Amino acid sequence: TNGMIRPEPLRDLLAVIDAMNIDVKGFTDEFYAKLCRGRLGPVLETVKAVKAAGCHVELTNLLIPTLNDKDEQVERLVRWVAEEIGEETPLHFSRYHPAYELDLPPTPLETLEKAYRTGKRHLRYVYVGNVWHVDGSDTFCYKCGRRVIERRGFDVVAYRIRGDKCEWCGATLDIVASPGWMEIE
């Protein structure tokens, strides 16, 4: 979702949904006004309400060259997530590709890598999307740093979690999965 929903319908929706991925499309009011014809504040309020309701929330930020990819904007977003929503909240940085009415070059891999590193300084689970990235699709234990879920495309190729614990160090991980899913025998 883009997070633009009034509180009343959001409450109704939260009664029947377990998880949401919300796009925080930029982290300035100017970006939202110009490109989304909306406001950042209501999106952030939606994110807070979803988290407060106990719904699993993940956030996605599509980094668009020259429009929302400045280091300070990424830093502000990451810090807001860590402080307001929680360091356990997954954050996905996605690569922009030219489409429809916006014809800018694709997001440079270096920009995504820098955003990934910024995210990892403050958050437990950071991912890179819309491009192949060495670590960007995998999940790492926030405590020992070992790879606990290894992905290739849409496939999970290694799963090192027992119950909700890191197989390597025993840290409790913030993983949402059905009981027994991908258990290693």
Order of helices and strands: HEHHEHEHEEEEEE
Coarse morphology: globular
The neighbouring-strand order within the major sheet is 1-2-3-4
Radius of gyration (CA) equals 17 Å
Task: Write a structural description.
It is built from 5 helices and 9 strands. The model has no long low-confidence stretch (mean pLDDT 92). With 185 residues, it is an alpha/beta fold. The longest helix is centred in the middle third of the chain and has 15 residues, at 71-85. It is globular and about 45 Å long.
Structure characteristics:
four-stranded parallel sheet; 31% helix; single chain; 185 residues; 21% strand; three-stranded antiparallel sheet; alpha/beta; globular
Task: Present the secondary structure layout.
Layout: H1 7-14, E1 19-23, H2 29-36, H3 40-52, E2 56-63, H4 71-85, E3 91-95, H5 109-122, E4 126-129, E5 139-140, E6 147-152, E7 155-159, E8 161-162, E9 165-166
Parallel strand pairs: 1-2, 2-3, 3-4
Antiparallel strand pairs: 5-6, 6-7, 8-9
Helix pairs in contact: 4-5
